[in-house]
Amino acid sequence: MITCSECGTGHYPGALFCETCGAAVHPAAKAHVAAQKARRKERLVGERRPPLMAGDDRGSTQMDAKTGELRIFVPAYRQRLTIRAAVINVGRADPELGFKPELDLTPFGGLEKGVSRRHATIQWDGRGYVLIDQHSSNGTWLEGVRLAVGQAHRLPPRAAVRFGDLLVQLSTAD
Amino acid sequence: MISQDSTDLYATLGVKPSATTDEIDAAYEARQSDAASGRDLSAAEWERLRYAYEVLSDPRRRDLYDSLVAETAPPVLNIDMVLSGTRLPLLDEPQLFYVLATVNSAESRAAYRLPLNLTLVIDRSTSMKGERLETVIRAVSLVLDKLGPEDSLAVISFSDRAEVVLPAHQRGGVADTSDPAIAIARQNPHDRLRSIIASGGTEIYQGLKEGVAQARRMAAGRNSHVILLTDGHTYGDDADCLKLAEEVATEGIDMTALGIGADWNDQFLDALVAPSGGQSGFIEQPGDLLPLLESRLKGLAAAYGRNVTLSQNWPSQLQLRHGFKLSPFAQPMILEDEPIPLGNLEGRAPLTFILEFLVAPQTIPVRVRLPLEIHYRVSADSGQFLTLQRSIQLIIDRGETENEPPSALIDAVRQMNLYRVQEQVWEDVQSGRPDTAADRMRRLTTRYQETGDLRLARQAQLESQRLANMGTISPEGRKVLKYGTRSLGGLLDS
């Protein structure tokens, strides 16, 4: 018999979850639930930070010194760029509106590849960069997964990101 | 009788692929005594028979043969099995283990697309008056335009009696038919739908009986499906409805039952769809209906396997305790049935289910062969059931047993378990244990917080307070939690 640490019910060995209260009882199940909770917490932390828009200089001065370097590689054009900023807007420049994103994908066929003007933002949150889709028409894809609009997703050290149909490789270095 | 197919050793011996060693021995002996009683077998036939027996009576050679057969002759469907562990410890007490099974269509095969024979049975009792009925009619009107010219449709409305709104008819047939009702149905179905007026009580059997009668008329050469939409308790005809549901399931007509609002009997609708392995669902807001209907239709349009069932031929050491279907839609499995109905393999979504087994205490190390055998039809019009079998070996011994259950399996068990705990609350309430129910509901609040479903967490918290104060839960809360927990699978992020 194994005992549920939450409600004290006894279970047969091999049980994954408690039949009385639903809590995880098997070490693997406990680890699974804890890991999922941690992942969600991380995402919620990102969500609470309001997406910063271009021209909004909240934070940019105080965080500049601490932000990491974001390296960008556009495979189709064999182009490498490096940007260091608290907020990196990703999109296409619109001279009429006077909008110029930090990462302007116009030179890489952004228009034909379905990149929106305000497509996504990459923000430094103190520990690393997070990627947020800004209601883009054709979506932002992190490692093949389409991101929910407005939600912050932490960028791994190396990541393949698709803005619309344009594939970009991002890597972060301290 | 010796099979024509010389490559199938099971057929050669005249046993099922699921046959036990004893059955194989018996079959071989029977063949020998056949020969002794004067039935002549040629030398080649004897050779084949002996070879079949040699292979199948040796577990190791048999397993190899099974795996080779599985590889060389890809079935239309595949089963994948994931176990919580393939090696279990030798224990003097019972232990649990889990199997996550996924039935997929072999990728190269296209879906066997038969026209759809859809029958909608719509509740028009007084309580449906207003927005509910209007939304239902709007949704049905939209669905109607999505049917192909080969598909057939019937719409029945019922209160305490049934009315055929649109008789079963092929959508794309010529307009000038001899049957005026069908002519109207083809020319102006939307007007007919709008003529439905809400009034009267709810007698589901009336509607269902007429719906089934209409469905039967167009069943030949089509995949038949009856969708019931209701918002109330039926009036004293539950038993008739369930009997009818049993009956149509054997004819290959599937059933979906959707409850609107909070005042319908979820256990009854669950029981109604159980024989065909269909879906029961909760329409909380009228606006939820159209997406649900559309997703049902999409699934029905491309069925890779119909009337899938799981045979319960478990080895003596194992007892199946619980089963839960996770995909294409979540639904508890009815273990009392043999075989267990699993519904259809629809569209691109695999058919996934989780099984929980209790292993009897073992005193000596054993190897247990666990067979999963499913039967299915390629289409509703084929009377023949195909069999697909996959087995997995379980070792129970004193060796290393550090099993790491895969996370997909953990998620599946978690969902099944949460559903059961949530059902347990209802049982507590009904058996007059409100305190136990309140305590359980409080713990469920924490569980829903863990899965990240804050809406269910809030509802559970509300209901636990209601239980503590009034000793009951609200009918709405009951349904939000029950059907919300069922569909949790989509929300668990991996």
What does this entry look like structurally?
The complex is a heterodimer of chains A (174) and B (494). Chain A is an alpha+beta fold. Chain A folds into two domains: 2-45, no CATH class; 57-172, Tumour Suppressor Smad4 (Sandwich), CATH 2.60.200.20. Helix content of chain A is 16%, strand content 32%. The longest helix of chain A has 22 residues, at 27-48. In chain B, a hairpin with a 3-residue loop joins strand 5 and strand 6 (162-170). Chain B is flat. Mean pLDDT of chain B is 84; it is low at 1-6, 71-75 and 490-494. Chains A and B meet through helix 1 of A and strand 3, helix 12 and helix 13 of B.
- What is the makeup of the main sheet of chain B? 6 strands, mixed
Anisotropy-based shape of chain B: flat
> What's the number of domains of chain A?
2
Low-confidence stretches of chain B: 1-6, 71-75, 490-494
- In the CATH hierarchy, the architecture of the largest domain in chain A is Sandwich
